[in-house]
Amino acid sequence: MEEWYKKITNAQSLEEIEEIRIAVFGKKGILAKEFAKMKSVPNEEKAAFAKGLNEHKAKLMEALNHKKEELSLAALEKAMKEEALDVTLYSVQSTTGALHPVMETMDKIVEYFVSMNFSVNTGSMVEDDFHNFEALNLPKYHPARDMQDTFYFKDELLLRTHTSPVQIRTMKNTRPPIRMIAPGAVFRRDYDLTHTPMFHQVEGLVVDASSKVSFANLKFILEDFLKYMFGEVEVRFRPSFFPFTEPSAEVDISCVFCEGKGCRVCSHTGWLEVLGCGIVDPNVFEAVGYENVSGYAFGLGVERFAMLIHRIGDLRSLFEADMKLLEQFA
Ligand code: DAH
User: Fold this and answer.
1) Which residue out of 164, 188, 215 has the highest number of ligand 1 atoms within 8 Å of its CB and is therefore the one to mutate?
2) Which residues, in sequence order, are CB contacts of 116 under 8 Å at separation 6+?
3) Closest approach atom of ligand 1 to CA 162
4) How many angstroms is it from 298 CA to the middle of ligand 1?
5) Is 31 helix (H, G, I), strand (E, B) or coil?
6) Which residues of 86-95 are buried (b: 16+ CB within 10 A; e: fewer)?
7) Contact 233/127 with Cβ under 8 angstroms?
8) Does ligand 1 have an atom closer than 6 angstroms to the CB of 278?
9) Residue 298: CA count within 13 A, CB half-sphere
């Protein structure tokens, strides 16, 4: 019997304990065998014999349970140690991204016009000569083409120089009334403080029956729009020329840097030019086969708006992926 107490004390695992339990308490275990010996014990010794065996039985059971508990606890502790997560470990720092100031400005512009019931149309960045120039009253050899030199592919294809071709495509695909804007990237052979070879424009076009669209409508919406973008600024319209509008105007706001007093940015005029607009030229309507309609159009450069809103001095810096600059506007 003693050897079983030793075995229990020395057991190393729960499996071993289970083996011992079966060997001691099982049907064919040693206790069963010992009890079987009762038959051959003389009657007067039977009681003492049984008592002795039962005491062993109880003690062995207690020792077994005790060891079992001890081993279970050790196994649990071991598992906890092995599976522990070190929550104090440093993780790779994650950063939150933000919209590029140009895209953010574009969103704000689009948001305004959508709220005024304009639909948003887009076109291809690769255009043909007809949609980019010809249909916009810019025939070949027209001197106004000089200001919009671009990259040419074969078959009269080119990188669009403005978003105005979306006007033409929309008018060809739908019937009036039209109330649309066209945001998107455009391309020109320019590179200086205020120009990059790729930039973004938002075009606007409203067309309806001939009596329904006036310069007053155009003036109202642009003034309201510019105040939405820049706050309480003065807005003025200056006569200008665009081949696709007649009359045409350039729109200025009072300088956001000096509040109209005159500074380096506004060339001491107190005014900043922000967009072009006008009443759609009849030749444009003729090119798309429209009759008895009137309309207004406008076009603006998104980078210029972003520069004025964020007070950025050099337009080219918007394209340099300089995090120090960009993070300021995030
Ligand atoms: N397309 C002109 C440009 O890129 C901008 C513009 C001016 C668009 C007047 C218009 C407009 O629709 O009416 O310089």
Assistant:
1) 164
2) 221
3) 4
4) 6
5) helix
6) eeeeeeeeee
7) no
8) yes
9) 27
Q: What is the structure's pLDDT at 265?
A: 84
Indicate if ligand 1 lies below 6 Å from the C-beta of 276: yes
**305-324: pLDDT as tens digits:** 999 999 887 888 889 988 88
What mean pLDDT is predicted for residues 196-225? Answer: 96
The CATH 3.30.930.10 portion of the chain extends over 101-329
Element (H, E) at 200: strand 198-209
Pocket flag, ligand 1, residue 297 (CB < 6 Å): yes
CATH number at 101-329: 3.30.930.10
Characterize the bridge pairing of strands 157-159 and 178-187: unpaired
Instruction: State both tokens at 61.
Output: 């059971």
Which pLDDT belongs to residue 132? 97
CB 170 within 8 A of CB 211: no
Per-residue pLDDT reduced to its tens digit, 11-53: 998 899 999 999 999 999 898 898 888 888 898 988 898 898 8
Rounded CA separation 230/130 (Å): 36
Ligand 1 neighbour 243 (Cβ under 6 A): no
pLDDT of residue 273: 95
Percentage of the chain exceeding pLDDT 70? 100
277 lines ligand 1 (CB under 6 A): yes
The whole-number average pLDDT for the span 120-140 is: 97
